[in-house]
# Entry
Amino acid sequence: MIFLDPETWPFGSALLLMLALFVIEGAGLMVASSPSSWIDGLMPDSPDGVAESLGWLHLGKVPSLVLLGIFLAGFSMSGYAIQGFSHLLLGTLLPAWVAVMPATLAGMALVSGMGGLIARIMPVDETSAVSAYSLVGRAGVVVQGIASAQAAAQMKVRDLHGRTHYVLVEPDTVGDSFEEGAAVLLVKKNGVRYRGIRNPHPELL
# Structure
């Protein structure tokens, strides 16, 4: 049975990882905290040239975990198909590293095709890519943890398109801290984290 052969372990691993991602995403949605949005909020902005060259992967238009799941599905299915044909025609399986190369290309092709389809059917406010720095000056609410000088907390904030982002925030004022439910105004970006102050006008959140 080729599913258990050593030559197919990359494809079995990819399949298990894909299932794990869907379980994590589903669990996050149950507690109103999407891992996809949180990860997308932590990703650094790509230079314009890099973003254009990778546009066919639809990065920034489709959630990163969705694209990764599509790739893993295509990689796994094509890998098993390649090894199945090899066993049928040659009577043996290809070395894993040989089968991985065409399977990777097949996975990328599926990302390009399926990602484009998903990008077209998703609502505009969910597919408009924004700069991570554009969140500076916007207000949100701490949803998990307590932000202090020693630890960042998770904060929910909406961009100018109304899309929700989950970012890490810490106080910009020495000695201050933000508890869960605190209204915070982002004032600067420091690496993958943001610094904020208590929102002086929480009624405008």
